[in-house]
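Subject: for your reference before the review

Hello V.,

The reviewers asked for a structural picture of the protein, and I figured it would be easier to keep everything in one thread rather than splitting it across files. Below is the amino acid sequence we used in the manuscript, unchanged from the supplementary table.
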Amino acid sequence: MKTLIKNARIISPGIDLPGAAVEIEGKTITAVYPAGSELPAADKVVDAEGRMLLPGFIDIHSHGAGGCDTCDAKLESLRTIAECKMKEGVTSWLPTTLTLSPKVLEDVCASVAEYMKNQEFAKTPGIHLEGPFINPKCCGAQNPAFVRQPDYDEVANLNSIAKVLLVSLAPEMPGAVEFIEKATASGIRCSAGHSAATHADFNKAKSAGLVHLTHYCNQMSPLHHREIGLVGSGLLDREIKIEIICDTIHLCADMLKTVFKNKETDQMMMITDSLACSWMPDGPGDLGGLPIIVKDGVARLQESGALAGSTLKYAHGLKNVHRLTGKPLSDLVKSTSWNQAQSLGLEGLGKIAPGFTADMVLLDDDFNTCKVFIDGVPQEGVGSSFGLNNIPVNFAERIEIYRGVVPVGFGSDAIGGVINI
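And here is what came back from the structure prediction:
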């Protein structure tokens, strides 16, 4: 079956073509036509009405959405998260874990393996293990009760259950460099995060195979004039790729401008680091057993006030960076899919060009998602709101906190009284 998307502003790495068209046959892009070209006949024609057509986003760091968390270790949760991500224009995502027990992580991998058999929403090429091999002094919103030293055998076991593509760890911890060497040799990428590493630690880890920095600037050693830490390492090094949460909260607007001015876009990877509270109303919740509060869309640990992931929708991060930096979208779009695909070996993704997989997102001028194509198929329900009724019934216990029932551990003074929605 041939599909033609016409009258689109095609934005892909290095190109910005208004009034253009894309031809799709099956799952594959077969041709791109500049404005004014004679267009071929097609079985189905989609009029983009001048909107922006971008490669589908690849979110390599997302814990949850729609009231569900990857670490629920349930197929229904993954389906809900994948549907939310699809509605954001994300066509591929890495279910991201938390620092939890080996048994829970095994169960999570088993649920991801089950979803991978029938990926009806956003596709899942593999898992991102965030922790448990982190620095206990840099836990942030990770549960310190489950922090442990790097253990390649544990990850090899998880990888045998479901493909592990990425591991975030603290490279300064005992055994971390050896872990990175083994993981890299087996095709698993490693990223430094929740870490107090020095620049010297970074260099050792990079020599062993480290390729990313996790949620840049957050829970990592800061830039200082006598020790540049991981933040300085990320700016100085021209090969390391950095994950960046572009909500103007995890990094303020001025820091976002600083990073995008001093780091090549080829080394940037926008992420959401979204939690279960993404796509949900404000209120209390949990993250890996730790109580959180969401107020004005900002998630924080109830006890310490530390930031705890985001409620960011993917395209809004791109919108923020575009408006803050003024960089052309044909450059910034590298950081929404192409760089991720190149780093993780996801062939055929990240560009709108002949031979590439027809994973694309159509955005309006305010960066709202209008339509999503996955493997050339337009997805249903995109552009509609996602509400409580879309969440599986067996997650009622999680949703009750949004209906005004305050669970044990949440005082009314902490959340401003009963929540009404």
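For the response letter, the relevant points are probably these. The chain has a mean pLDDT of 90. The CA atoms of residues 156 and 380 lie 37 Å apart.

Happy to draft the paragraph if you're swamped.

O.
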